[in-house]
Specification:
single chain, 10% strand, alpha/beta, five-stranded parallel β-sheet, Rossmann fold
Length: 243
């Protein structure tokens, strides 16, 4: 009865990991000989693991990633110019701390979205906030936010996330308001967070795709400087497991 009361008290205090650990460990003979300090230490580890797992679930849920992807599962058999050394460097996570961007370009089906989602997964598992959104939906959300008065609030949310992933940028040339919004986004995030961008448009054509020369200069100055630039090439990988 005392053990049940202890579990109930821990749950009431929202020490869910401790409660679960206590219920499992108290009946395990191998823990019977532990002194109080060691037993409590194990319960503290149980609580920390529970909280870490819950935080990861929240980060992944808020990230809105398009697919389950992992840098460890990248397909290198397909010749597309993806260097293992660059991926290994990204796996360290130092680019997040350094607020560096990642620009992924290449034809459709080459695995850009998979790589972007794999980076988002890595970011969340490292304990950082991230958000994935396709560029067409991003600009549509920004357009709607101007109509309902939440434009600045949305820009603020995009500025606060530690790693913003914008997929399929420049599928079409940007309209006037779109390039203004993009400038606001990259300006807010410059040296404050990392931005991952994928595009079918080669990097050398981004200036033309953005449109306005002055805004294009400002946007690219903030995006391209100090960024990893990964240009993929080759035939489509659609249908392959782990692009």
């Amino acid at each position: 009865m005392l053990h049940e009361q202890t579990v109930a008290t821990l749950n009431m205090l929202r020490l869910i990991g401790m409660a679960r650990g206590f219920a499992e460990r108290i009946g395990d003979p191998k823990h019977a000989e532990l002194d109080h300090a060691d037993f409590v230490g194990l319960l503290a580890q149980d609580e920390k693991m529970h909280r870490d797992n819950q935080r990861l679930k929240r980060l992944l849920k808020n990230a809105k990633l398009k697919m389950q992807a992992s840098l460890e599962d990248i397909n290198y058999r397909h010749p597309r110019g993806l260097e293992k050394t660059v991926v290994r460097e990204l796996q360290t996570g130092r680019w997040i701390e350094a607020k560096r961007n990642v620009l992924l370009t290449g034809p459709t089906g080459i695995g850009k979205s998979y790589l972007a989602n794999a980076l988002g997964n890595q970011v969340a598992r490292a304990g950082h906030t991230t958000l994935y959104i396709r560029a067409p939906r991003l600009f549509e959300s920004l357009r709607q936010s101007q109509g309902d008065g939440t434009h600045m609030r949305l820009l603020g949310r995009l500025a606060k996330v530690e790693v913003l992933i914008i997929d399929d940028l420049l599928l079409t040339p940007l309209a006037e308001q779109e390039r203004k919004d993009l400038l606001e986004i990259v300006e807010d995030r410059h040296q404050a967070g990392s931005t991952v961008v994928t595009s079918q448009c080669p990097l050398k054509q981004w200036h033309e795709g953005i449109g306005d020369p002055t805004l294009a200069d400002a946007i690219l100055d903030r995006l391209v400087h100090n960024a990893y630039k990964i240009a993929l090439k080759g035939p489509s990988m659609r249908g392959e497991e782990n692009p």
